[in-house]
Amino acid sequence: MQPSARFRFDDNGGISGTDADAAKTINLLKLDHTTLQGWRRGAITAFFPPDEQLSREEIERRIRALGTASNGKLAEFSFCIQSYASLLLE
Which end of the chain has less neighbouring CB within 10 Å, N or C? Predict the structure, then answer.
């Protein structure tokens, strides 16, 4: 299982593990800290504003854009945003 598949992120910046090891990592590294949740929430909201209605194609386009490096770097929290966006496609 890829590491990215072991964590899920919600629109509030929350994180959950998809297995026991991921849950243990979240607790050990304090990845559920309120500061991190706020940063993730801000990043997710910037890419997917809650009042915006998006087509499946637009969501997929944004997911692809998040996986494309700009100046050799991915967008901050791109992993988290992609995880949240995949929930929108379910």
Answer: C
Chain-centroid distance, C-alpha 33: 15
Tokens found for residue 7: 């964590």
Express each pLDDT in 17-55 by its tens digit: 999 999 999 999 999 999 999 999 999 999 999 999 999
Q: How far apart are CA 4 and CA 52, in angstroms?
A: 26
Report the alpha-carbon distance of residue 54 to residue 73 in Å, rounded.
26
Contact 11/51 with Cβ under 8 angstroms? no
Residues 6 or more apart whose CB falls under 8 angstroms from that of 54 comprise 48, 62, 88
Query: How far, in Å, CA of 70 to CA of 51, rounded?
Result: 27
pLDDT at 5: 81
Tokens of 90: 């379910």
Six token digits for residue 80: 């988290």
